[in-house]
Amino acid sequence: MYLLLHSGVISGVLVVIGSDLNGRPLSDSEKELITSITSAGGFIGAIIAGFLADRLGRRSTIWFSSVLFTIGAIIQATSYSIAQMTIGRFLIVSRP
């Protein structure tokens, strides 16, 4: 559910982002990358979530997840390139 929310929100952002990233309009493949990286991050996060919860405990895993989310949000908010936006999008959902 959370992953679908991020995919839906970015579709609205891509309409108004214009040439803010890299100083030029985004190509279709760049829009696809920014949108679909959330699926890859969610996949990786789902794989490591159980291992982290067993090793660190639920409370520490949730805290670690919140830190990753915050870092990803800051990277997205301050991004000026497609690479930064992609990394921020990956981090925001790759949290366990």
Give the SSE map.
Blueprint: H1 2-16, H2 28-56, H3 58-78, H4 82-94
Helix pairs in contact: 1-2, 2-3, 2-4, 3-4
Describe it:
The chain has about 100 residues and is an all-alpha fold. The chain has a domain at about 35-95. The chain contains 4 helices and no strands. The chain has helices at about 1-15, 30-55, 60-80, 80-95. The longest helix is centred in the middle third of the chain and has 29 residues, at about 30-55. The mean pLDDT is about 85.
Q: Over all CA atoms, what is the radius of gyration?
A: 14 Å
Described by its quaternary structure, the protein is single chain
Q: Portion of residues in helices?
A: over 70%
Reading the helices and strands in chain order gives: HHHH
Tell me, what's the shape?
elongated
Unreliable runs: none
Task: List how many beta strands DSSP finds.
Answer: 0
Largest sheet descriptor: none
Query: In what range is the share of β-strand residues?
Result: under 5%
Overall pLDDT: 84
Structural class based on helices, strands and sheet pairing = mainly alpha
Spatial gap, N to C terminus: 14 Å
The number of helical elements comes to 4
